[in-house]
Task: structure prediction
Amino acid sequence: MFLNLSITDPINNFVTWLVSHYGEFFHGITLFLLHYFLIPLELALRWIPPWAVLIALGLLGFHATKRFLPTFLFVACAYLIGCFGLWDKLMLTLALMMVSTFLCVLIGIPLGILTSKSNRLRSIVLPVLDVMQTMPGFVYLIPVLMLFNLGKVPAIFATIIYALPPLIRLTDLGIRQVDADTKEAAAAFGTSPWQMLIGVELPLARPSIMAGINQTIMMALAMVVVASMIGARGLGEDVLEGINTLNVGKGSQAGIAVVILAIIIDRISQAYGMEARQRRLLNGKR
Amino acid sequence: MSKIKVNNVYKIFGTRATQALTMSRAGASKDEVLANTNCTVGLKDVSLEINQGQIFVIMGLSGSGKSTLVRHFNGLIQPSAGEILIDGTDVAKLNDAGLRDLRRHKVSMVFQGFGLMPHKTTLENAAFALLTRGEKKEASLEQARIWLERVGLKGYEQKYPDELSGGMKQRVGLARALAANTDVILMDEAFSALDPLIRAEMQDQLLELQKSLHKTIVFITHDLDEALHIGSEIAILYNGELVQVGKPKEILEKPANDYVRRFVEKRVAKEMT
Result:
């Protein structure tokens, strides 16, 4: 009944061809990312004494939420991770997440802006995003590994593939949802396309874009365990080791640390998603 | 001297516009065109002349094409046929840069829904036109401050639009248009969303300002009282066609057809009660 078809060989051949012809190029990307982004950031985060990080977290938390209780909880929970003896790994995970998120923002926001301007581009990009979000991670992990070797860089790429789609979608949506009357009014005073984008569309799409960044960060953190499987260090290592050695306690401890990190970053980035004015109103002082 | 001249403008909405245009030109009615081509005739053979320094009112019920017509004056809508001359330049033939220039220096606009930027303060909103055309920030804000004061909003400079009442918002809209200091100001149902008392106040304020400014104001409304009160000349649109143009007195005394007569009679009836 079924024809005997297979795309196994062509794909295998393609990946082999890519590795043999462009291996140097991908190796170059690996070195670039490692030397200019990840390693300096990791060194910096591990060089700074933990108490300084905790103070910085407190200041950032208060600046974002303008409330004492959440700020206190952020710092206390982060301190708890330190008590678990996971501080160093926390910093490694944080560095990996920051670099991935930075690259996602660098790619995602401009791409989201472009798709919001062109229905044609959107109809091409959206199915690609669907694939990126639904394709089981291990399918693209293998070729990524072949191209970039084991380590942190393939972990970053795997994370980007997984975490980029919501940011593109929400940037596109946010810009499309900007009130047409407001845009007409701006156009009636002779705004250039650039003035429209910077002065009207992006500020009004900000809550949506910030929600996209928030989602990207959450998804990047969800990838830390998978990242550890391909050689990235960090909290995922302990989870993985816990699984491998049936050490449920160790796995849970590291798992809880990931969750704490996720919640702290989520709350802080959500607070920044609100307009400064909205935050002031929430706190009842104007 | 005519500031704005509209010559035989047609506007067809829909994908088969060329065919619809031919039909409409041959005299087919709006319904016939819709049935045959699935296109809506927005404006049909409209010609107008608007003199420098007058308040010219375009009146009609919703769907009469008045908002469509006024958007042709600054190129927010392009005509399907015909020309719109402002100071002798055809707006329909301008490219993007030309349109931007027109909107920045010659024609500003006030909207029914105010069209304020919700993320900017009153002061920044009032300075929007000036900042958009690239004037220095300090000078722009200073101008905006002056105009906010003239429309009665001194002290509200740092408020955001959502903290203002409807009347105040429209005063910001007015200040934004006036600060642009263009010869022509388009006002699309600018006072229609306001309650009657505020509305009368705004009309008087507009007349008061006009005494010293002598702008060419194109004012859109569906309200005959408003038209008679502020207009030095009134054009009446019905179903996309121009049915009468004249001084307020002429409209009242010699309505061109039943449609206009109904408007006038309703007003007389209201005054008797």
